[in-house]
Amino acid sequence: MGDGIKGARSSSHSLSLRKLTKNYGQQTAIEDVSIEVGRGKFLTLLGPSGSGKTTILMTVAGFLAPTSGQILLDDRDITHLAPERRNFGMVFQGYALFPHMTVEENVWFPLRVRGMPFAGARKDVLAILDLVQLGGLASRLPAELSGGQQQRVALARALVFQPNLLLLDEPLSALDKRLRADLQWELSALHRRLGATFISVTHDQDEALSMSDEIVILRDGRVEQSGSPAILYDRPATKFVASFLGESNFIRGEVSDVETDRFRYRVKDRSFLQAGSPAPKHQDGSVLLALRPEKISVGPEPTNLPNSVEGHIADFKYFGSMFYLQVATELFGRMLVKTPAGKAGFDPGMTGQVWLGWTPDASVVVRAS
Amino acid sequence: MHIPDGQRFYYWAMAPAAVLVAIFFAVPLLQVLWLSVSEPALGLQNYAALIDNTLLHRVWLNTLRICALTTVFAVLAGYLVAYVMVQVGEQHRFLMIFCIVLTFWLSVLIRAFAWVMILRTEGVVNATLLALGLVEQPLRLVRNETGVLIGMTHYMLPVAVLPMYSSMITISRTFVDAARGLGAGAWQTFLLVYLPLSKPGIIAAAVLVFIFSLGFYITPAILGGGRVVMIAEYIRVSFDETLRWGYAAMLASTLLIALSLGLALLARVVNVRKVFGA
Fold it and tell me: Which pTM value belongs to this model?
């Protein structure tokens, strides 16, 4: 197995989804979905429930046949290939470990159905169990394991036969918060080490941001936006992306002076400066801007940043490392501001009036829908 | 045991039934047990037949063989029915359950005679086979062990289907998907995953069918045409015709003990309360 693990990079595959549509009678589960997954990439399908992310994964796995569209593994059309012939590893939601088999029998299973006897498979099984740090538990039954251990068994079982792709359906959702954070590190380390192509489905934005090379955000069965985590976070194209991935304040203003690489917009009688172009502009000449709460500076004195607004602290929460402030402004209503607790320089509980400030490139123009 | 005041009434409400059971079931049962060790003389001489009476050995072996074969056929056929019931949609499933329960309402006597009509030399099965030229002589399907097996398997089918169905319906679809996704073909998935997961239902069904079959009386008597003597028929003959009451009581007691042992065995592998729908 040792050689197999090292050799996996060279055998990693790419996947293309071309105009996939899946209808259930009148209902459309996914529509016109096209996604490219590069060799060795970790791609996450992110969306709220009902956005079609699981439908896409099940179609890739072969459990659902698309109504139209194509699935290509490298250049081979696998749209109509039976699931057991795709050679994809899959970690199911809830893991689906076979309850009547021990840990090693579960991990042996994919090798066993490929005609490998237990004795011959034993080395590979133990190697992969070591890789997921479960070497000592080989003869336990799944019911005797904790959630995190079951998750690792499911991973080992999905990886032991060197699959073309690894599919993960809400891989961490059944675990508690701390364990989830630990396994996020492990899972991305495992991905780097194996160099294989991973496709994950989740509704958890932290999971998506922390592990993925690329995120596809889905909404109502369509691709809303895709790109690297940093692009999606810093340059959300729509209001939906800005509010689904992280948190955002939204500002609607009237575009006034437009220059080549920046423009001004007005809110009531105040003017603000924004980098970039005002596209996409609304028909009535207004623009919608998303402003991340941690990109706003806050203090008890007026600021000299190009954009500023005054308000008072209506509410706050302390998270150890961060303050989350609810600042009531006359111009924009409530604004969420996040500021490092150690560097705040003031006590939110004692401070009434504050000034918020941000640079022209802190906010970004987004489509309203 | 402490009984809350509010529940005391319910325990008293059970009293008439408990008294009835005691007088008309428990007491006669004890009388039968007593008879088996006291007639014609006090002692275990009736039970000695278990060791040295070759006729009795033959009857018991007959009974066990027929019950074992019935169990195999009923569980095999019942597994298919239960599997289909789990796979079909809600409406079909309801219809299937209805049909299975319906058979419980038909008298065992009527069913046995119906089988005689169907299986006899001039019956519909032989007539069809002859007309199609598949056989030259009518098959002997009744008044022999074949007839008994057909009748008993048919009678036991619902008993086999229900526990297997209730076990299979709990098997999550994800296990099957997981097996397919990991590379198992349909047949491998069934053998390595589905079948082992449905094992508790199979065991429950097999033990139930076997235990029920041991006491069969009417079906073997009618479909066996007197040629196939099972233990229940032998008990009747001993009471009714040879008038060896102590011997008959010993046979009945032995059957009772065999059934109790079977149930105890069942209790070790499955939840008995669940099997009986409690």
Answer: 0.79
